[in-house]
Amino acid sequence: GWAAFIFILLQFSQVVFLPIPSTVTVAAGAALFGPLLGSVYSLIGIMIGSLFAFLVGRYAGYRVVAWIIGKDTLETWLEKIKGKDKLFLSAMFLLPVFPDDVLCFVAGLSSMSILYFAIVILISRVLAIFVTSYAIALIPFTTWWGILIWCIFAVAVIALFVVLYKKSDAILAWIDRVFHRETRVTHKKEKNEFEVEIIDADGSIVTKGVAKNEKPQSSPDQPPEK
Q: How far apart are CA 93 and CA 91, in angstroms?
């Protein structure tokens, strides 16, 4: 009915216009419609809003995105993802410390295709929305133990957010090292071996080993296989 439509519109606006944490609106949806329907309505609104923000970045361009999220904010994130935008943005959407709504606009200026963006957003939002909705349904606010659990959870989330935010540059640097490693293979003919080295992004050797060629050598009396 109209209640569901208005809530979906609220979730859309939360991504594009309103500086409201999605956890608050997802919790409201779970309370109003139940965990399943609340999650579905939240997912619809947030997905439409995320795709809209991406398309604004893709087709309206730098100036419009800078006007919406602020030029300094935009420059900060563009500098962080420079040269590795698809990798870094994928990691940022999956980790809870980064501002997803802002990054949807930034993603529109990146090399991401809309299909790739939609898949990453769907995976990250489904996990966050359904976990939040069902946690609210299973842990009530009407009991002392429920309130205690939520207080502990809130403190833990805030502490995790602070730590991850302070270490965000280190996290991105680690992702860069792990996913930009190079494998070098050198064939030693005299020993019929291959020397294998895995090189980190900074040029250091992560792993080094030797692999033997197990292919049997043809005997002098037997012609080589064609």
A: 6
All structural domains of the chain with their residue ranges: 2-168, 182-212
In one-letter notation, the amino acid at residue 54 is: F
Higher-pLDDT residue of 14 and 224 is 14
For residue 44, the one-letter residue type is: I
Residue 54 has pLDDT above 90, yes or no: yes
Q: What share of the chain is helix, strand, coil (3-state, %, to 5)?
A: 65, 10, 25
Distance (Å, whole) CA 115 – CA 175: 23
DSSP string, 103-156: HHHHHTTSS--HHHHHHHHHHHHHHHHHHHHHHHHHS-SSSHHHHHHHHHHHHH
Q: How far is CA 149 from CA 101, 155, 161, in A?
A: 28, 10, 18
Residue 81: exposure state from Cβ atoms within 10 A (0-12, 13-18, ≥19): buried
Q: Please report, for residues 21, 82, 224, the alpha-carbon distance to residue 89 in angstroms, rounded to integers and kept in the order given.
A: 19, 10, 52
Spatial CB neighbours of 141, under 8 Å, sequence gap ≥ 6:
147, 150
173-215: pLDDT as tens digits = 666 665 554 544 455 555 555 555 545 444 555 444 455 555 5
Q: Is the pTM of this model over 0.70?
A: no
